[in-house]
Specification:
Length: 169
């Protein structure tokens, strides 16, 4: 057993890639494909600081900032209704999320994600204020789902093995 394998076993992390999760990820948009991404969505120990993953998180943070801080100015007459703002936000959600089904998805502010690309939302999804999805794993939410305020979904964990943390794995 290798040192990394022993650490994975002691941490509860998977020891091999999950081909089913990787196949599902191939159906999603904006995926930062790399070896470490495949390890991440498989539940294995991985390096979150490789450029592909770090850049994807940076883009997601920038997207969240825009989504959470935008409100149409008075001169944007075409956006001065709930329906118009909802349409704009739906367009933005499609830029970030891995998959969206239908046009009736509405997420109140603020909304936070790690990557966004690992999230799939079904038809007629609604989330009240303060939704957080840490999508280091694939998150699939079905049709006609409504979340109350401050819902958090954590498809992530942190390594507890001291040596793995020192090694950035």
């Amino acid at each position: 057993m290798t040192d990394t394998s022993a650490r994975a076993k002691s941490s509860g992390a998977a020891e091999s890639k999950d081909e089913e999760q990787i196949a599902l990820a191939r159906t999603l948009h904006q995926v930062p494909w790399c070896e470490q991404y495949e390890r991440m969505i498989s539940g294995m120990l991985y390096d979150a600081f490789v450029p592909e993953l770090a850049n994807a998180r940076f883009k997601a943070r920038a997207w969240c900032n825009r989504y959470n801080t935008y409100f149409p100015p008075p001169e944007a007459v075409e956006l001065q209704s709930h329906e118009a703002l909802a349409q704009l936000r739906m367009t933005w959600l499609r830029e970030l999320l891995g998959a969206t089904k239908g046009d009736e998805i509405f997420i109140e502010l603020p909304f936070y994600v790690d990557y966004g690309c690992n999230i799939s939302l079904g038809e007629r999804f609604y989330a009240n204020f303060g939704l957080t999805i840490l999508d280091c794993g694939i998150v699939v939410i079905g049709d006609k789902v409504m979340f109350g305020p401050n819902v958090s979904i954590y498809a992530a964990t942190h390594e507890t093995d001291v040596q793995s943390r020192r090694d950035n794995i």
